[in-house]
Amino acid sequence: MIKMGTFYCVLTFHTTHHALNAEVILKKKSIPVKLMPVPRQVSSSCGIAAEIPCSMKEELLGICHRYGVEIDDFHSIEKENKCGLLDKMLGIIK
Questions:
Q1: CATH number of the domain where residue 58 is located
Q2: pTM value surpassing 0.85
Q3: Contact 25/60 with Cβ under 8 angstroms?
Q4: Biggest alpha carbon distance in the chain?
Q5: Which domain holds residue 76?
Q6: Residue 28, SS3?
């Protein structure tokens, strides 16, 4: 049996300034947002991304546009399965 990964979504920005503005605006609107380094699946360069609820993509893009926050891109990323020794021994994750 192979476990299927789950997804999380991030917004990337052209500048740190826009990432910080997005965080402030979304938090004021009670939208869960978490700043994080840009995931390696997206880019190997340094930068800040905002983890957001995938189901709110269109709403969040609209909010950022209305407030002049420039978005580089929206990414849906599969979480990597991290299997431990017990999982390998039981054959849960291959």
A1: 3.30.70
A2: no
A3: no
A4: 52
A5: 7-90
A6: helix
